[in-house]
């Protein structure tokens, strides 16, 4: 089993930056892909960024390209999401997710493990 715990959310003004971290424990060495999703009130959960761990290939939603950066540290079993030039529409609960197999950023159900989420508010 894998446990994921997010941290780093908070409130920031538009144009500001925030960094989120997700610490994994358990059988994290089996993970193939990790990702960040977000969900705003009344909206569906959407993929923000993912990283294919064996090759460290990243992918991003169009809405965050050039502003968000996902990275991963094997030794610390941690994945980060650096968010710059934040906009009010980035306001959401942000979730860390992991999958031991192929998983699509556009399909949340592809991911098996999820954290509890951390709130990001941009005003």
Describe the 3D structure.
The chain has 123 residues and is mainly β. It is built from no helices and eleven strands. Strands 2, 4, 5, 6, 9, 10 and 11 form a seven-stranded mixed beta sheet that branches. It has a four-stranded antiparallel beta sheet with strand order 1-3-8-7, with no helix packed on it. A hairpin with a 6-residue loop joins β4 and β5. It starts with a strand and ends with a strand.
Outline the low-pLDDT stretches. Answer: none
Main β sheet profile: 7 strands, mixed
Quaternary state of the chains:
single chain
Number of helices: 0
Mean pLDDT: 94
| Radius of gyration from the alpha-carbon trace, in angstroms | 13 Å
How far is it from the N-terminal to the C-terminal residue, by CA? Answer: 37 Å
What is the number of strand segments? 11
Quote the beta fraction.
over 45%
Order of helical and strand elements: EEEEEEEEEEE
Structural class: mainly beta
Coarse shape: globular
Percent range for helical residues? under 10%
């Amino acid at each position: 089993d894998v446990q994921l715990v997010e941290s780093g959310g908070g409130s920031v003004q538009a144009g500001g930056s925030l960094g989120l971290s997700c610490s994994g424990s358990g059988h994290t060495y089996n993970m193939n892909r990790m990702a960040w999703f977000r969900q705003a009130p009344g909206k569906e959960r959407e993929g923000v960024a993912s990283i294919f761990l064996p090759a460290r290939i990243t992918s991003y939603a169009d809405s965050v390209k050039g502003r968000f950066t996902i990275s991963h540290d094997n030794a610390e079993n941690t994945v980060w999401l650096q968010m710059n030039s934040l906009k009010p529409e980035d306001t959401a609960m942000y979730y860390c997710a992991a999958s031991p197999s192929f998983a699509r950023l556009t399909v949340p159900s592809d991911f098996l493990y999820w954290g509890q989420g951390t709130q990001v508010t941009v005003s």
